[in-house]
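Design job #97: recover the sequence.
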């Protein structure tokens, strides 16, 4: 993510610095406006970075062959996350009148008690892999910016400084406190009914998928995996409990993220090159 999308060796240091600053500004503005739609951080980072070569210094050519490989990783993530889910459809039907349309979507009290602590453990596991993947996606361009400022070269020859990684951890925690509620409401309550047993299945399946991708150094989307897992488990337990309209809106937001981020980044880069 720090230097793999375009050929930085052929790019002037001034344009490298402009590219990195522009990416960070646009990345923050985009995520500020798109938290409700669960837009994808890795896809936005790829889109904003992919346009830097053509819009800036003409000698810094984009490695376009890397963009499809990363976007293709993101597309099948919902079924990948879904394939990791245990079968959580063995619960009995709840007979109350207000939930008859969602039979099988709720746990019995004894089931909720058993799975409540397990869900906490899987959520902790999910937070761990989320930090290992999504924080890296956001910090990668920042490390590139730091390398350009300190060495004039965006090629990383050693491990990144610990303070930059710590900065990323603090940033994701602050973002969770400030805007995380909207995303949690969308995935946790608006998309489908989530109970302790289904929540454990969702978090475990998505976390395992992201962990495997992180181990393979692939910048996949935790959001894709979680949404895919939520919809698949909700569908297995009770088809009527899934908000398909919201799911379609999320898919459209994912599809629009890459071209929109690429276009806005190209525009900002064009303005920078004409004014600096």
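Job complete. Output follows.
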């Amino acid at each position: 993510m720090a230097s793999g999308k375009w050929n930085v060796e052929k790019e002037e240091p001034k344009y490298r610095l402009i590219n990195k600053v522009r990416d960070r500004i646009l990345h923050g503005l985009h995520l500020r406006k798109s938290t409700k739609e669960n837009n994808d951080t890795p896809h936005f980072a790829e889109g904003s970075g992919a346009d830097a070569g053509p819009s800036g210094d003409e000698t810094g050519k984009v490695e376009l062959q890397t963009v499809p490989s990363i976007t293709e990783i993101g597309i099948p993530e919902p079924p990948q996350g879904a394939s990791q889910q245990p079968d959580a459809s063995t619960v009995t039907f709840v007979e109350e009148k207000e939930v008859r349309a969602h039979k099988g979507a709720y746990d019995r009290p004894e089931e909720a008690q058993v799975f409540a602590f397990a869900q906490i453990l899987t959520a902790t596991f999910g937070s761990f892999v989320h930090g290992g993947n999504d924080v890296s996606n956001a910090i990668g361009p920042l490390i590139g910016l730091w390398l350009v400022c300190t060495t004039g070269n965006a090629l990383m020859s050693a491990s990144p400084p610990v303070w930059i990684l710590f900065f990323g951890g603090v940033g994701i925690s602050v973002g969770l406190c400030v805007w995380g509620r909207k995303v949690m409401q969308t995935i946790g309550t608006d998309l489908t009914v989530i109970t302790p047993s289904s929540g454990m299945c969702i978090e475990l399946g998505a976390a395992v998928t992201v962990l495997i991708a992180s181990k393979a150094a692939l910048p996949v989307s935790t959001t894709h995996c979680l949404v895919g897992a939520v919809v698949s488990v909700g569908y297995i337990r009770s088809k009527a409990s899934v908000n398909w309209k919201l799911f379609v809106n999320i898919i459209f937001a994912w599809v629009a993220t890459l071209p929109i981020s690429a276009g806005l980044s190209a525009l900002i880069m064009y303005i920078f090159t004409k004014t600096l």
